[in-house]
Amino acid sequence: MPIRLTPLMKQRLTQRAYEMIERSLSCFPELKETTITIGYTRKHLGSATVIYRKGVILRLIIRLKVRKLTYQTIGHELTHLIQGLAHGERARARSADPAKIPSGEKQCDIWTLARHELFGDDAPTYVKVPRVMREHWPAYAEPVRDLCIAAIEKRHNHRQYIRWLEEQIRKLAKAPRQSKPMPAQLALPFVN
């Protein structure tokens, strides 16, 4: 999967961020045959753009803030590219194909979390998540991902699947947290 870095991103990109991008891209086989331009942004966590000219994809661009970069942000922006590719030029009518990721920020968060557990390293930005969950996100990441997968399944016959998901997330926040037991320290036998 070819990657093109903008000059500013070449200056700012750290080894850690580059490895995160590479690892994230491996979860997006739909983008395997495309060149993605990766730029730098100062204002937002990230942004994504699909540029069309006369019905042909000219360029796929994501811009990322390298400082405090998360897999969730990278995955979210890559999911926007998938949305853009699925829906094509804005001049064309939107399809209601259930196999495609619907457009929208909340939908992007849902499909990103459902895609792979890698993208659960930070709470979603647009899906409503109670503060207690954001503060203790690692404890909630897996059950919220499971709810996102369930919401995508519900979408086929339940128009209000996002509302359903956010209600389930609120219920999850009110339920007592299941703390995972700490693994016991291993004792090594000493030979006398």
Helix count, DSSP H or I runs of 4 or more residues: 7
Distance, first to last CA? 56 Å
Please tell me what the overall shape is.
globular
- Give the biggest beta sheet: 4 strands, mixed
Name the beta content range: 5-15%
Order of strands across the main sheet: 1-2-4-3
Total domain units = 1
Output the radius of gyration.
Answer: 19 Å
Low-pLDDT stretches are none
Q: Which percent bin holds the helix content?
A: 40-55%
What would you note in describing this structure?
The protein has 192 residues and is of the alpha/beta class. The protein has one domain. 43% of the residues lie in helices and 13% in strands. The chain contains seven helices and four strands, in the order E-H-H-E-E-E-H-H-H-H-H. Strands 1-2-4-3 form a four-stranded mixed sheet. Helix 6 packs antiparallel against helix 7. It is globular and about 65 Å long. 27% of the residues are buried. The model has no long low-confidence stretch (mean pLDDT 88).
Search tags:
single chain; 192 residues; alpha/beta; four-stranded mixed sheet; 13% strand
Topology:
Elements: E1 3-5, H1 7-12, H2 15-25, E2 36-40, E3 46-53, E4 56-64, H3 71-87, H4 105-115, H5 131-135, H6 137-154, H7 161-174
Parallel strand pairs: 1-2, 2-4
Antiparallel strand pairs: 3-4
Helix pairs in contact: 2-3, 3-4, 4-6, 6-7
Quick take:
This protein is an alpha/beta fold and 192 residues long. It has helices at 7-12, 15-25, 71-87, 105-115, 131-135, 137-154, 161-174; strands at 3-5, 36-40, 46-53, 56-64.
